From TrEMBL, chains A, B:
Residues 9-107 form the HTH hxlR-type domain. The keyword Transcription regulation applies. The keyword Transcription regulation applies. This is Transcriptional regulator. It comes from the Bacteria. InterPro entries: ArsR-like_HTH, HTH_HxlR, WH-like_DNA-bd_sf, WH_DNA-bd_sf. PROSITE patterns: HTH_HXLR. Keywords: DNA-binding, Transcription, Transcription regulation. It holds the Pfam family HxlR. GO terms for molecular function: DNA binding.
Amino acid sequence: MWDPYVKDCPTRALLDRIGDKWTVLVVGTLAGGPLRFSEIARRVDGVSQKMLTQTLRALEADGLVVRTQYPQIPPRVEYELTAVGHTLRDPLRALEEWAKEYMPQVLEHREAVAVR
Amino acid sequence: MWDPYVKDCPTRALLDRIGDKWTVLVVGTLAGGPLRFSEIARRVDGVSQKMLTQTLRALEADGLVVRTQYPQIPPRVEYELTAVGHTLRDPLRALEEWAKEYMPQVLEHREAVAVR
DNA sequence: CGGCATCCTCGTTGATACTG
DNA sequence: CAGTATCAACGAGGATGCCG
């Protein structure tokens, strides 16, 4: 009844893609609309310039984010979710809501077991 | 309007938890009902004994999976999602459906960009 | 401002062998 | 069958410095 998780299934590909430390957070941050590089960095607490650049480049390569550079000095670059990028928001939001609802008790259980 | 992703928000904790290589796949596999260790290993293609054990232990510690050992020889151990574990299925399924729907074009876009 | 290049460390994962 | 133990490899990620 349940498909086995074979090596090349799309679920695995997605996990490889969003399983890193920053991708989901960046997508969530961009959900509200286009933002500048520095603004994303400010909202995603703790991300380094390197990792933010790397994450955004990868999202761009996958067609989930578009990068717009304005020819100004100082430079101004904005990032925005594409149409496909926006469709990813719903499942990610479901994950976030689950996290808010259940993570506290999960962490509590983890602690309780660890003490023993 | 959008919450910044501060370091200790539940979303990050969840990502740390399910962002590894096997957790989501194991939870998905157990969604259909209790399974023996070897059966899970068979359905999750490529997982090593070590990683499967490690993943299951962590899920157990977090109260998402229960482990039942039957005193037999040879040993028989079954794993099953807890009530909380089952609540995680919906958001994960949403992710899987997105993957089936959109990952092909994401990968295609990635390829198309890479060639340039 | 928005990067890129480099170095380095640590944690996750994998391979292999052994066990109750 | 269902693990445990050990070792080795790899790569994500962080720190730092420089640049158009």
